[in-house]
Design a protein that fits this description.
The protein is globular. Helix content is 69%, strand content 1%. It has a domain at 2-242 and 400-495. The chain has helices at residues 2-20, 28-33, 44-59, 70-86, 99-123, 127-158, 163-172, 190-210, 226-241, 244-274, 282-314, 316-322, 325-331, 333-339, 343-358, 373-376, 385-393, 403-434, 440-459, 470-485, and strands at 213-214, 494-495. It has a two-stranded antiparallel sheet. Helix 10 packs across helix 19 (440-459) and helix 18 runs antiparallel to helix 19. The two termini are 39 Å apart.
């Protein structure tokens, strides 16, 4: 019995450290273990121990794996079948890159991601474990915010970074880089910082603040929760990263929340003013609804205008090109995107999509899309410096730089259907939790899951890896809470 308690305590420490280490996306020691891979989260180290002390002892128990996990297992098997099928196909070569090693690395990252996901689900077994997990995630969030503030202040004050910050970055990131004008905290690059903030931290802090909940009893000025302070800090880190897709994702979350709140207010107002009166005609209801949503859309457009004005101050040249409609008409979308430094990204997407069209059913195999890059590269790509550097000097195959197109290109429409089925299942679970009436903390996880889903869709257009743990952990939390609420008696959380 004492041995079980000791092992449980060790597993809890390992789990907490895994969550606290989430800001470190490419730790040098882990990168060496993964043959120099950029995707080398420090959290993989405690996960490796938990695999033996926590995962294996539980995974083989009856009913330990719910049916919601089946689609992602099916996706893994389909990817394996597609990759095996590619062995009977003449695969284009690329310099010294080894297709088998590419396949192995791709399946390793996918397997590690699924391991993060199921471990999270198994650990989130009750409300206490949920609160503990959020508390540890918050500690990681504080690390991100503090690092972002230090980097931002250093650049603004000195137009450079002190040796201490440079040395620290070299210790915790395999890139060892700090970026001009942009913060990346302890992530590999600024866009990775935006990814982790949007996928995990902001949804959690948004959910707690907007649902009027907190996992702490302490209040700032006896009124405001600590999560509200973290939310502002998270927005600062996101803004200072200067990640365009990161900003767009945050705007989408805010837009959804405005529409959601507007719909709630509309229902209350209509119930208050019309419930005791005669039923309104369909035409009058339609007019009132139209006027209401016109006001909401106008508000969203006004907020978008303010954000664009802010971006014009931050990046005046790029934003001037953004509104250059004449260039779009005369030179086309790709030329316009090139001025915005987006054309290279579009070319990667387009090339991978052409690969999918050539192998639409099962794709070319996990990790193989890049081998078809040169053969499917549109002619416009040869006029872009980044593409030319890759063609002439890079020894590694290109990445699609888009998770959704990568899944299509490498596993086909069948693999994409399996992955989307898994994803959609979590949207349904989040919606169910969001309307949970027994406990508001449980309802918080529903809103977290909805915001996570929005972020995941948009961030998928920027990241193409299965190895970063943020969405795996986020969806694991949603599924864990959904499962234990089906049979558990729920304890109220702390209100504001």
């Amino acid at each position: 019995m004492k041995t079980d308690n000791a092992l449980g305590f060790i597993n809890k420490i390992l789990w907490g450290s895994l969550l606290i280490f989430l800001p470190f996306t490419s730790f040098p020691l882990v990168a060496k273990l993964f043959r120099g891979s950029m995707v080398a989260p420090l959290s993989a180290l405690p996960l490796a121990v938990l695999f033996f002390t926590f995962f294996l002892p539980r995974i083989f128990k009856p009913k330990s794996v719910p049916t919601q996990v089946v689609p992602v297992f099916l996706f893994f098997l389909l990817a394996l079948f597609s990759t095996a099928l590619a062995a009977f196909r003449l695969l284009p070569g690329y310099r010294s890159d080894n297709p088998l090693m590419n396949n192995f690395e791709s399946f390793t990252t996918l397997g590690v991601g699924i391991l993060f996901y199921i471990t999270t689900y198994l650990f989130i077994s009750d409300e206490n474990s949920l609160k503990f997990s959020i508390a540890c995630i918050n500690i990681g969030g504080v690390i991100i915010i503090v690092a972002s503030i230090l980097q931002f202040a250093s650049w603004k004050l000195f137009q450079n970074y002190p040796d201490l910050l440079q040395s620290l970055q070299s210790l915790v990131s395999s890139s060892g880089r700090l970026f001009e004008r942009r913060v990346n905290a302890f992530a590999y690059e600024p866009s990775w910082l935006a990814h982790q903030v949007n996928i995990l931290y902001l949804p959690i802090w948004f959910g707690l603040v907007l649902k009027g909940q907190s996992i702490y009893k302490f209040r700032i000025f006896k009124k405001f929760s600590l999560e509200l302070l973290l939310l502002f800090g998270g927005f600062f880190s996101l803004f200072a990263s200067l990640s365009r897709i990161g900003w767009l994702t945050a705007i989408a979350m805010i837009g959804f929340l405005i529409i959601r709140k507007a719909d709630q207010l509309k229902r209350k107002a209509f119930n208050k003013f019309f419930s005791s009166k005669k039923p309104q005609s369909l035409s009058k209801n339609a007019i009132l609804n139209s006027l209401f949503w016109l006001l909401v859309v106008s508000l969203i457009l006004f907020i978008s205008f303010l954000i664009l004005k802010l971006l014009t101050i931050v990046e005046p040249t790029r934003m001037a090109n953004f509104f250059n409609l004449t260039q779009i008409r005369e030179q086309g979308i790709l030329a316009w995107a090139s001025r915005l430094e987006l054309a290279e990204r579009f070319i990667y997407w387009q090339t991978a999509f052409i690969t999918f069209l050539s192998f639409p059913l099962l794709g070319v195999g996990l990790g193989n899309a890049g081998f078809y890059f040169l053969g499917n590269l549109p002619s416009f790509g040869y006029g872009l410096p980044e593409i030319l550097r890759y063609v002439l000097m890079n020894n590694n195959v290109a990445n699609p730089k888009n998770l959704w197109i990568r899944i299509l290109a490498e596993t086909g429409i069948i693999g994409f259907a399996a992955f989307f089925t898994w994803f959609y299942g979590h949207i349904k679970m989040a919606g169910s939790l969001d309307s949970e009436s027994r406990n508001r903390l449980t309802s918080v996880v529903g809103l977290i899951g909805i915001l996570l889903s929005i972020s995941f869709v948009l961030e998928g257009f920027s990241m193409d890896t299965f190895g970063l743990p943020y969405y795996w952990i986020g969806f694991g939390i949603v599924m864990g809470v959904y499962r234990f609420t089906q049979n558990s008696t729920i304890i109220p959380a702390e209100d504001h």
